[in-house]
Amino acid sequence: xxxxxxxxxxxxxxxxxxxxxxxxxxxxxxxxxxxxxxxxxxxxxxxxxxxxxxxxxxxxxxxxxxxxxxxxxxxxxxxxxxxxxxxxxxxxxxxxxxxxxxxxxxxxxxxxxxxxxxxxxxxxxxxxxxxxxxxxxxxxxxxxxxxxxxxx
Length: 152
Ligand SMILES: [Zn+2]
Description:
The protein has one helix at 62-66, and strands spanning 2-8, 16-24, 27-38, 44-49, 54-56, 72-78, 87-88, 95-96, 99-100, 102-105, 108-110, 123-133, 139-148. It is mainly β. The chain is elongated, with a radius of gyration of 21 Å. It is 3% helix and 51% strand. The termini are far apart. The strands form three sheets. Strands 9-13-12-6-10-11 form a six-stranded antiparallel beta sheet, with no helix packed on it. Strands 1, 2, 3, 4 and 5 form a five-stranded mixed beta sheet that branches. It has a two-stranded antiparallel sheet with strand order 7-8. The chain has two domains: 2-62, no CATH class; 68-148, no CATH class. The site of zinc ion has 7 residues, from α1.
């Protein structure tokens, strides 16, 4: 016999999970839960998973992210900007379409992902058009203007 159950309450306000299971006698033989993915924009997605997990991500959902493609942003980049206009992600070796940067939001640099030791490298500031996002969810831009920053 299978059942469908809905739960409220949990580690986050407004938490809700749906669990499917198969009852064998008095034991629940199989519990298949839903993993809820939550993003800083307030959107959620869900996928089948074991147990009832909430994944709170420190970035916006892919729809909100992709809606920003074409937007002009101010950015900071550490290290020499690649002359080819392409930035290689050293962690997985893939070439990204554009140059990956950190966005400057209200005067504050939005460092995302792995950024150890980068403050030792020369710092550049500029403006660019978002063409996509990198594996750490950092913006990848087509550079409009760039200059070496006094800092760094
Ligand atoms: Zn969203």
